[in-house]
Amino acid sequence: MSEELKNTALKYSEAGLSVIPLRPKEKIPVVSEWQRYGAICSTKHEVENWWDVDFNRNIGIACGPANGRFLFVVDQDIAKDGSGRRGNIEGLPPTLSQTTGSGGRQLFYWAPAGYIVRNSKPRDLVDIRGLGGQVVVAPSIHPNGNRYVWDMGGFNLEEIQEFPLTELEAFLGKSNDEKLSVNDVLVGLPIGQGLRHMGIAQVSGLLLSKAKTHEEMELFRLAVYEWDRVNNKSPEPVHLRRKEIDAVYNGLMLKELGKRTNEVEITGKVRPQFTTLADLLKEPEEEVSWVVDNLLPSGGFSIIVAKPKVGKSTIARQLALSVARGESFLGYKTTKGSILYVALEEKRGEVQNHFRLLGATGEENLNVYIGSVPDEAYIWLEREVEAKKPILVIIDTLFRFAQVKDVNDYARITAALTPLLDLTRKYSTHLMCVHHARKMSGDGADITLGSTAIFGTVDTAMIITKTREDGRRMIETQQRYGTNIEPTILVFDSYSKSLKLGGTKEEEDMGAMEDKIIKFLKSTNEPIVEKIIQEEVDGKNAIKVRSLRDLVSKGVVIRTGVGGKNDPYKYSCSPVLNPEVGTREQEEKW
User: Fold this and answer.
1) CA-based diameter of the chain, in Å?
2) Residue 219 and residue 362 in one domain
3) DSSP strand E in 307-421: where?
4) How far apart are CA 384 and CA 48, in angstroms?
5) What is the CATH number of the domain that holds 13?
6) What residues contact residue 260 under an 8 Å CB cut-off, 6+ apart?
7) What is the mean pLDDT of residues 270-285?
8) Degrees (nearest 5) of the Cα angle 588, 539, 471?
9) Are residues 245 and 118 part of one domain?
10) For 417, what's the count of Cα atoms within 13 Å in the CB-facing half-sphere?
11) In whole angstroms, what is the distance from residue 336 CA to residue 139 CA?
12) pLDDT, tens digit (0-9, with 9 covering 90-100), for 322-341
């Protein structure tokens, strides 16, 4: 039975219906804000993902224009008093129908062109499922255990008939003020250079004038998105086109609301209010929860910045696997959860092999997408986040996903990042984006490629570089929350292709310098003045000075002389063991 539900849901999706998942043996949608699927049709990919999570989910169809045409359903109920009395649906036009689990019937209709059919109750025991509504379809299971069954030989989309306008208005008891001539606008509106903005305004104004609630206004916004997608083949990224639509739509919506006397009644919301400073100061301090302790906050946004072949993708995959397992990452505690990893610049085999070397078993709750940027990438990502509820999303790389042409354009970068920020706040997931560094040299945040809007937006910037002296990888962070990681050497395990924190760069540099100094002193037969050490040992003099003083304090190097002109300090290796150094054998290794 479970396979049948998934396969049938896919069949409806392939037929062009906007399928949504419902709880098993219930009528309640699984996805939040499911009404959007009344305006924008769910995809086959979404349907597969929804039923892969639970094969037992019931099947719902979101009513509205997303189904190719405006789909609505007449639902006949049965009285619950035991009388067997049914709603009167006699005389309605013949069309595709099904018998519900309770024994009633549901009739599926196309609305007349451009006509809005809302949820309503035109007769006793007869409901209409229209705009903002959904209906359970066969072979779903009713809460009473009975199945929904298609009448007259099964499902056939071609059997759905249009409900004639005159008869529909008589049935609903309404005049044609419900008529929405969107189709007339679409057919008559020329689409071309300089006309798109006019079209957005016309369609938006028409839809808003017919919306009766704030929820319908937001649903109609999605209809404008869909109209733009179908009719305007713009090279602009989808999120930028929608930003333009929102600007027009929001302005018209405010004007429409201004015409209505009771805004709270229309919107179902009160106006945003200011908070006094006194009340603000009384509010409890906001607590930060972490995906990676003291490094990546829940609902935050971060970037990994590095030049090519330095290890940014390596550390991103290591992070993904660590969080999926709930294991420490670079020594930091993680919160275990679901992960989405989006790889847009790498070969499938490389990603597969690296996860295998890192010890992945496939049992981790980690979902991977490898390929080109999906169409309408922002919408695709939000739907995946909504369906899978990840604690962490990693995008590799940011600009490949955002498809921004001018990386230095502050306004365009801001527009590209805004929907990503909205996503993190809405779903409380942390979003990390892998990002390229500038070709020119720089330090810290200065190496970030593109506009300063990027660095100014993120909560955590994880910066990976190579040291100029010997090419060692080094990491540092600059954070809005938590404590920065100071420049620290990354130790690379060539077997597992993993990274771990070493000492700070200063500690590592001093350790390497101390090795050089001891090796040089052992090659001499007599104490040496500091000037000769500085001349003969490679490296920065400042590090030599600190390293030499450190070796003296440890007792590894002996200093003689008083430090004057006639008796300068001289240095030689200690002939005796210092407890802080270890065994004499260890000392010989210096």
Assistant:
1) 120
2) no
3) 339-343, 366-370, 392-396
4) 11
5) 3.30.2250
6) 266
7) 77
8) 95
9) no
10) 26
11) 37
12) 999 999 999 899 999 999 99
Query: Lowest-confidence range among 84-93, 210-219, 387-396?
Result: 210-219
What is the CATH classification number for the domain harbouring 405? 3.40.50.300
Mapping DSSP to helix (H, G, I), strand (E, B) and coil, where does residue 264 land? helix
For 303, the token pair is: 């970037």
Contacts of 437 (CB under 8 A, 6+ apart): 305, 306, 307, 310, 447, 448, 449, 463, 465
C-alpha 93: how far from chain center:
46
For residue 253, pLDDT over 60 is answered with yes
The structure tokens 């995008």 sit at 395
* Six-digit token string for 589: 């290794």
The SS3 of residue 494 is coil
Helices (H), 407-491: 410-427, 452-457
Which of 93-102, 210-219, 413-422 is the least confident region? 210-219
Are 492 and 525 within one domain? no
Is there a single domain that holds both residue 477 and residue 556?
Answer: no
Quote the CA–CA distance of 340 and 369 in Å, as a whole number: 8
pLDDT score of 480 more than 80:
yes
Domain closes at, from 210, 233, 267: 267
* Domain that residue 526 falls in: 508-589
Structure tokens at 446: 């200065």
Q: What integer pLDDT is reported at residue 2 of this predicted model? A: 60
Whether the per-residue pLDDT at 458 is higher than 70: the answer is yes
Domain count, the chain: 4
pLDDT of res. 179: 55
The predicted-structure confidence for 519-549, as pLDDT tens digits, reads as follows 888 888 888 888 888 888 888 888 888 888 8
Radius of gyration of the chain (CA): 33
> In sequence order, what are the beta bridge partners of 479?
460
Residue of 112, 176, 137 whose CA lies nearest to 17: 137
Amino acid letter, 34:
W
CB-hemisphere CA count at 13 Å for 479? 16
- Model pLDDT for residues 85-105, shown as the tens digit of each residue: 999 999 999 999 999 999 999
Query: Is 144:158 a contact under the CB 8 Å cutoff?
Result: no
d(CA 66, CA 35): 10
Mean pLDDT (the chain, rounded): 83
Distance CA 220, CA 203 (A): 10
Give the integer Cα–Cα distance in Å for 74 and 105.
Answer: 8
Q: What is the pLDDT of residue 190?
A: 44
550-583 confidence digits (pLDDT tens): 888 888 888 998 888 888 888 888 775 344 443 3
| β-sheet bridge partners, residue 120 | 128
Q: How many residues does the chain have?
A: 590
For residue 549, tell me if it sits in a domain. yes
* Cβ contacts of 459 within 8 Å, gap of 6 or more: 296, 297, 300, 301, 302, 479, 480, 481
Q: Which residues contact 3 (CB under 8 A, 6 or more apart)?
A: 55
User: Does residue 465 sit in the same domain as residue 519?
Assistant: no
